[in-house]
Queue: 2 jobs
Job 1
Amino acid sequence: MQEQPKSQKTASIFSGKSPKDEATHFFIQMKDPLIRQLDLKATSRLSATCTSLYGLFKYDVLIKKLLHFTVLGRLDQVENILKVHPELALKRATITDLSDRTFYNITGLQYAAWALDIEMCELILKNVDNASASVADTQLSELEKNPWGHGAYYDISPLVKKTQGYLNNYNGWDYDKCCQYWQKEVGGEQRKCPAWLIYAWCEAGYDVAWVKKDLKNIKVVRQYEKEHLKWWFEQAYNGGLGVGSTWSCHRGPRDQVQGWSGYGEMKRNTGRIVGDRECQYVVAQRPEALNSLKARLSNNNATDKRHGQ
């Protein structure tokens, strides 16, 4: 029996398909469940293995990048993606944020709304056309059902309560208790802050929203070049890495945020902690701004329907 040419022999093993075609077919079949399990880095690496997979996963990579930059509070990067691909504004993916909270099958708009990042919400909605506005409205309504198990939106009240608890009990606690509570309880809640809040807390200068205690009317400059997020989560201080390890931070009326172990120099630090707590009260009012945005979107949709748009 005459032996088949190598190329034909190889193709016959895969039922008439070349190995490349067979692999591509496999990934098409497995694409959706596979993508749900992969993070941005893994998806990007997979798409780079060959041109066929790049075409197959191109938009999945972009969607994950959009979610990634939304989590990082990067208005600039999100805007750059949506300028070219506005159709991705309401697409879903799974993302884990900087505080290790995982949100399955979420959109950038939904995460921004959950995080109370009103500027990010407005940026994304600016890239949603009239035909998709009702979808955006529905997505925001889904938040109330708490589909991801992290609440309908970021809740700062535990941080407010623990900060106040520290102020109330400092004089009655010993050294170990003061440090443990400040580092782990207060710091643990600080570690849950979404990116936009960290940018606001860390924005350098005296004439800024945090110092003025006005996060509503004063625009926060996110100062990406200063790497505030890296400082917040990775800074080495007092033998630990990042807030919630062996330190947490305070700011108050100072021109910059500062790490602190939680004991000593309380007279000087009290004013700073009180100032931070007052800013936290302001953040606690952010759901009202989110509700106003949702109401505005719903009203616009209702108006469009009445006019047959």
Job 2
Amino acid sequence: MPNYFKPTDAAAILESLIKQLSAQTTITKVDSTNFVDAGTAVLNTGYEGVLNALSVMVARTITAVRPMEDDEFSLISKSEDSFSDRIRKINIYSKMPQESGLYNTDANTNLGPGLDDESGAGSQWEQAPYLAVERFFGPKEFTWQHEYTEYLNQLNIAFTSPEELANFLNGMRTELANNIKEELIAKNRILTLSRIAGNKLLTDSGKLPARCAINLAKEFNTEYGTAYTVNQLLHEHRIAFYKFFLAKFKIISRMMEKRTVLFHDDLAKTVDNVTYRVVRHCPKSMQKFIYNDQLFTEVDFDLAEIFHPDKLAFPRANAEGIQFWQSPEYPYAIDVTPALPENATSSEVQIPIVLGLLFDNDALMSNNRYTGMLSTPINARHGYRNEFYNFLYSNFCDYSEMSVLFYLSDENTEYFTGDGTEDDFELEGTATTLVSVTVGGVAQTSGTDYTFADNTITFAAGHIPADGKIIQVIYK
């Protein structure tokens, strides 16, 4: 992934998302690949024609604007100081213990007549430095402006008193502040959605460990030998499912405190036939949890036990409930093409129900900076001036830091890689219905491109996946 030495104009990407957030349109795929920095969009829905519509008023005027109090996705917002020191990230690979040379052991004879420094476990001068890997985030920045036009005298005739005029002008300023705050939330929302979708895609394709994206419906049915649908789990069996989720959350949160490679990209590297991995741990104080509060409310789940100091001691300040992920019409669902590290290929990810994302503080960060306001001179002919409020926004999404996605789906996804000759691909899970089969992102047609029998997909002659092509199979 190249470094970016000039800011990216972000004025387009958030328009679609903002419209979804405010229910102006239905849920639509959001492509975050050029907006989220995975290691190597801003609202402007059009100006209301208020000024053109104003007429001479003879009655009382109420300016219907109030300050926005919403502050969702604040968990990932960081100050400039805490953010800037993470642009260059150095990871140290873990090392295994070495054989002892201090004693004669069952593995080596280290001490005895005729033995020298090269005997047994080896020389004391053998060099064994710790290996490191660098990852760079940025300097990729996104920029946008907000323009505000101040009319000097023209609005006076539209109001019956200076107080009404003052209220109107204050309302315009308030709405400007609301727009800016709404945009920051939307940018952080895109970053979070990208990480959720990225965890799912990378886990399904085997590039992240299996614990990084947990389908709780599948895990429940596997553990208890049942075949409940998601709807049945959330309604008919919600008490049992609630207890199951709480147990899983507690176990995973505690495991994240231990040094492990279960919850992140360990950046595995082989040197001289020895594989080195980055091993992580995440104390409770550094764990963050963003969850869908509306889902837990509707199915009557009480999350108090997660934050109960005697039961889990998960810091309540480190958790944040949001009302919906991407669209208030479909509050639990996401439809996103995530930004991924340079060695991974992205594609659209749809998840019907996302419960939440548990992650290390260093896995997901954003920084929003106001860089100042510039004003034009007064336009002498027309009597107004323009003010431009300028912003910079940076983010990063580090898959080498811990994160776990909790979601629910009646569907399963498996990936294969074509080699140009193999035509049969057997699923690990048991499929009753194939939802979709794609090769290199292109949908395949049953009966023409492939057939399905005995849990095996067989591609027809002339339709065998080429070498290196990714095969995605979604099934129930």
